[in-house]
Write a structure and sequence with these properties.
single chain, alpha+beta, three-stranded antiparallel beta sheet, 9 strands, 47% helix, transmembrane helix, Band_7, membrane
Length: 285
């Protein structure tokens, strides 16, 4: 695997001055009819001097190759002169966004889900990006999709499917994003790519089971709400009986206590407002 070698070539301004001097000299020699010398100077000027001038913009690099051999990479921005026989490949070092497409995969429990991720990445080692893979852009796309699929297969969508799961795709966003970022860095290191950030941008059940899962979630929410209501109602009934006993407002036998508890629970746990019924007789009639 090729190792990146950073080089800093000489400034191109001196070479530019030499180019202009030789150009002026060649034109002068042509003017005085010395075509042989003029041709030689102009050929050297345009073939050996001018092609060696390069401009490197900020957050860009130039990979230099001489007769099939990697010479080095220029990462410093500026105006330089390099060996004119080298081929120069420009690589951007800027951060890029990959907005992954929505993938339909199965989670750990086998449920079909839709998942997509947004990945921020940049070229870290230009030599690996140029020589270790055929096309580093395509490599990033394919490996990113593979990493997202593997992540979805490793965890359940939520804790309803796997109650023992410590991490789920829905509830463990920070941990899941961290695991995705680590796996992407491992996969893309061969191509000299560094992943700056990776986040799940879309997560949902697939359409064929979305309706059933929604009903299940609603039922779970209703059960949880009912449980809370019952716990509160039992506490209120217990408090009412204790207060009646402490204040000695009324003395109830076990049968009447049971009836009172039943009536209070119906009032407190019912979906609709209770309709009061006035008892004009005694407690036992």
């Amino acid at each position: 695997m090729q190792t990146e070698k950073i080089i800093k070539p000489p400034s191109g301004y001196l070479t530019l001055v030499i180019f202009l001097i030789m150009l002026t000299g060649g034109i002068y020699l042509m003017a005085i009819k010395s075509f042989g010398w003029a041709s030689a100077i102009l050929v050297i000027d345009f073939i050996l001097v001018l092609p060696g001038l390069i401009i490197v913009n900020p957050n860009e690099s130039k990979v230099l190759i001489l007769f099939g051999k990697y010479v080095g990479t220029v990462k410093t921005d500026g105006f330089f002169w390099v060996n004119p026989l080298t081929s120069k490949k420009k690589l951007s070092l800027r951060a890029r966004n990959l907005n992954g497409q929505q993938l339909k995969v199965n989670d750990k429990m086998g449920n079909p889900i839709e998942i997509a991720a947004v990945i921020v990445w940049q070229v870290k080692e230009t030599a690996k990006a140029s020589f270790s893979v055929e096309d580093y852009l395509q490599y990033v796309n394919i490996q990113s999709e593979a990493a997202v699929r593997h992540l979805a297969n490793s965890f359940a969508y939520d804790s309803l499917e796997d109650e023992s799961a410590q991490i789920t795709l829905k509830d463990g966003a920070d941990k899941v994003n961290s695991l995705l970022e680590d796996e992407l860095n491992e996969r893309l290191s061969r191509a000299g790519i560094e992943v700056i950030e990776a986040r799940i941008s879309h997560l949902a059940y697939a359409q064929e089971i979305a309706s059933a899962m929604l009903q299940r979630q609603q039922a779970t929410a209703v059960i949880a709400a009912r449980k809370l209501i019952v716990e509160g109602a039992v506490g209120m009934v217990e408090m009412a009986l204790e207060r009646l006993s402490e204040k000695e407002i009324v003395t109830l036998d076990e049968e009447r206590k049971a009836a009172m508890v039943s009536n209070l629970l119906v009032v407190l746990c019912g979906d609709r407002n209770a309709q009061p019924v006035v008892n004009a007789g005694t407690l036992y009639n």
